[in-house]
Amino acid sequence: MTKESCGVFGDRNRIRIMFVCHGNICRSPMAEFIFKDLAAKRGAADRFSVASSATSTEEILNGVGNPVYPPAKAELAKHGIRFEDRRAVQIKKRDYGRYDLFIGMDDANVRNMLRSFGGDPDGKVRKLTEYTDRGGEVADPWYSGRFDVAYRDIAEGCAALLGALTKEGGEGR
Fold first, then answer.
1. Could you list the active site residues?
2. How far is CA 20 from CA 107, 116, 167, in A?
């Protein structure tokens, strides 16, 4: 996968990635912090600007987002992943011009991003599992309680995405 096929503009110093899930308290912040950790361990942290957001406002009340869900924090800590205190934010239409890639966790996230953006003319919207051999979706641990499974799937997807963007993973997916 080339930078161009990811919708990344070659004249920028950093690839700007927005991970997206429904509420921005479980999967997308986990992906944000896992990707940052992987990039740092590979000496590539300075090549990326990484954030996360929600497609819904369910975790945002009166303009203030909820913090990362405690079981998501616990799963990250179990794997030695450092995370910052952060609160849920909703993706906005204007974000389309501010980021190079939007990585959703499931098909509903992708549909909702496309609706928010009014389409994807530059091919920036992807699903995290598209970068893996298994495909499918990252199941929402809010409903399943399986933060271990979400972590595994997100870590696999983030490693494959990082490999594709840095060419460490071959030609990418």
1. 21, 27, 140
2. 11, 12, 23
